[in-house]
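Rotation project, supervised by the postdoc (A.L.). Task for the rotation student: set up a whole-complex structure prediction and record inputs and outputs verbatim in this book. Inputs entered:
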Amino acid sequence: MRKLGVMNTSALPAALADIVDDFQALEEPERLQLLLEFSRELPDPPARLQDHPELMEQVVECQSPLFLTIETEPADGGQPGAAAERVRLFFKAPPEAPTTRGFAGVLHEGLDGLSPAEILAVPDDMPDLLGLTRAITPLRMRGMTAMLGRIKRKVAALPQHG
Amino acid sequence: MPYPVEQNEKFAAYAHPERLVSTGWLASAIEGGALDGGNLVVVESDEDVLLYETGHIPGAVKIDWHTDLNDEVTRDYVDGTAFAALAAAKGISRDSTVVIYGDKSNWWAAYALWVFTLFGHEDVRLLDGGRDKWIAEGRPVITERTVPVPGDYPVVERNDAPIRAFLADVLAHFGKPLIDVRSVEEYTGQRTHMPAYPEEGAMRGGHIPTAASIPWARAAAEDGTYRSRPELEALYLDEAGLTEGDDVVAYCRIGERSSHTWFALKYLLGFDTVRNYDGSWTEWGNAVRVPIVKGTERGSVPAGRA
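Outputs recorded:
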């Protein structure tokens, strides 16, 4: 099996590194199947966001409609007002867009609950590590790169980072 | 052996009714066992590479426009050897009747049908209304991947000239009608990519001089089926100004949306000579010293080009 030697996963947060390892351990057709599983596991946003679509922002670089919002909450054990915060990610994409949902599912499982600094440290070209580029084409991979970029821009714009 | 052609009033008004089948016709054919033996092969072709896996028409095989039909290196379609291998692997023989359907009003399905036609596959049809109509009608879908009995497909050289236009062909075409099927914002040059789609890198915005703007989706009804013949005539004859016997070139951004229009012009309205310029705006908008018109006016034939 071909390993993607360009970058290793040591620079990634643990959950994201595990996902990348899972993808890389598979042959190409099975990688697509794994992406499909992520699309099925993407949780719906909570009702308070579903009822207020204006609180979610469309990522226009994605071929299919994807809506995204981020929130922060105190990290476990953190004192209110202390810097220890974690980022919560919420995505919404229709079932007719499984590839977009799959990308969102990977980013949700890999990044939800991390600190702003951990998310900002994720390399911009992390999607290339999934080994999907050949199977689904570079054009489609751009959607995931755009999604990660949008998350990082929103995290960077949080008050304590602005 | 070609599968029988569907007869109904809507299709009968079209120039080539044998190019369309309805969802009801396909459901009956499948129930009647048409897929056994490879006489009839149903192909799903979508924009989303994973959509087939979420559920597809029972017995349908998947062909992906990008990974299966495009050459991996050159900006071109696969060659005869690769197409023969693909078709055989999908259970398609040279004499199979192929019915193609897909998402987004058959936008990508029409593109796949156009590529099948480059290889001269004789009997290839579109499912009118595509994937969305099939699902909206509550017809069966399954997630189990179809494992076809391999077909027998010869290596056929692609014959591009009758239905495919290249940049030089379009430059030589001035004075004859062009149809631009992109959004109005792309036509006027306000933007160089589709609304809500990734920037695909055209250096210049606008349209090919003299091209009429008829966005592709206007040929489709709300349920994704093609509009009736009188409606299509109002669009392409009255509004775009085409007349019988015209030699027409259609284009969009990479040739996918214009395949949908190509199908309507060629098979539903019966224009004999219709070519799809698949280089489209991602080539024209980047090419050096080709004429471009911005704004809503069609513009005139560039000097010395008529």
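Student's summary: The CA atoms of residues 11 and 17 of chain B lie 5 Å apart.
Supervisor addendum: The longest strand of chain B covers residues 40-44.
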